[in-house]
UniProtKB/TrEMBL annotation:
Residues 156-342 form the Calcineurin-like phosphoesterase domain. This is Metallophosphoesterase. One of its GO terms (molecular function) is acid phosphatase activity. Residues 31-132 form the Purple acid phosphatase N-terminal domain. Keywords: Signal. Residues 1-20 form the signal peptide. The keyword Ubl conjugation does not apply. It comes from the Bacteria. InterPro entries: Calcineurin-like_PHP, Metallo-depent_PP-like, PAPs_N, Purple_acid_Pase-like_N. The keyword Signal applies. PANTHER family: ACID PHOSPHATASE TYPE 7, PURPLE ACID PHOSPHATASE. It holds the Pfam family Metallophos.
Amino acid sequence: MKQYVMLAMALVMVSSRVCAQNGEFSPSPVPDRIILTLTATPASSQAVSWRTDTSVTQAQAQFAQATGSPDFRKSVKTIWATSSFFENIPHLEDHVVAKQHELVFTDLKPDTKYAYRVGDGSHWSEWFHFTTARADAGPVSFLYFGDSQTELKSMWSRVVREAYGTMPQVDFMLHAGDLINRSNRDSEWGEWYHAAGWINGSVPSVMTPGNHEYYDSVAGDRLDRHKKLSPYWQQSFRLPENGPAGIPELRETVYFIDYHDMRLISLNSCAARYHPETMEVQRQWLEKVLKNNPKKWTVVTHHFPLYSARKGPENLKLRTALQPLYEQYGVDLVLQGHDHTYGRGTNKDYGAQYKGDKGPVYVVSVSGPKMYDSSFYPWVDRSASNTQLYQLIKIEDNTLRYEAYTAIGDLYDAFELQKDYRGRNTFSEQAPQGVKEAVDLPLKRTKDWTDADFDDYEKRFKAYKKRKQGKTKGD
């Protein structure tokens, strides 16, 4: 009898593993999870990554300059991919083995539309298009998403699709970390890719890691020093490798991209917190990148915010290390995540930015449905809670325009920066006058609140409104 029980248990385990491998997002010989990512030279190259099952041995891509005629296929070139075996270990309930493939299209023409597909010669994806950057200082536009993290298929999908439907001609998409909730859970990564679908294969992405892209490498031990970046990151995304040398964790998480007249910089704020020795490495690297920056505009992204948009601990060590460099070298905009609420402002009192003070505009945003309450801290000029958002940033010549939209496409926040001949910015508040600030509390967050918690929230909100009413553009 004992043998039969053991056999039955073994069959259940095998069946469970097969079900997990053959679930909704299981790999097959047909390419899936196709995603374009920017390279350090976006005017002449383009990276792409995808996944198959382990039966694929020779992954490749075909590409050609796109035309209105289907005859472009007569002039395709073939390029072979670099492939690697992937297993999500340590994994949760969905054990998956697969092949990850990546390659870079090189020697491309600037400002040119190309067609491409990926496969193995027998199993092919559909044909996608992408357009390279210009070689000169033309306009640039991109979408910025705060944490997507949870309910990706059902709830984040509406945000990324609304964003693309509203602004389909953007140059790329930027994700400020916490793309998923559990770093090695394959079903969540499957939902993340599913939510954007074919958009990922047509509009390049850049991303910076959040704390949920890290996992506890020692079972039962949640000490920061044992946290590691998920293998999904570097095997799924082909990102620039021009960051600090010699530290594997920072590879493809700390980098910069020059796109037209903007320098975009990604920092790994999670590594800085979990492994403090990497903070100084990043700081020194950042200073060199900022000091030798030929571009008119500078945008930085990292997950943990320098100034928090929700009530809780501040990231003082990160702020102490980075803020002086941001102000010394004229960083224009810092795009962040983590707080699951929205805040936009400067490190000055409300109204001070109108006087031309140096220092970037800081933004914290959230695109997924997980919500926290807003802090209403003094740095915040525009706030929102319990609201899914996406942002559009447009840069042309001496103007940077920022717009934040709700999940249904309504304009919620906006401002412009005008840069003068000295490189100093004049800030113009352009938040829509008829749109009240969204301050409804998220029900899931407040279900266990006490009267004291609600009183504290009301006190913070009243102080915030008083600060705003006491300052105007003329002050």
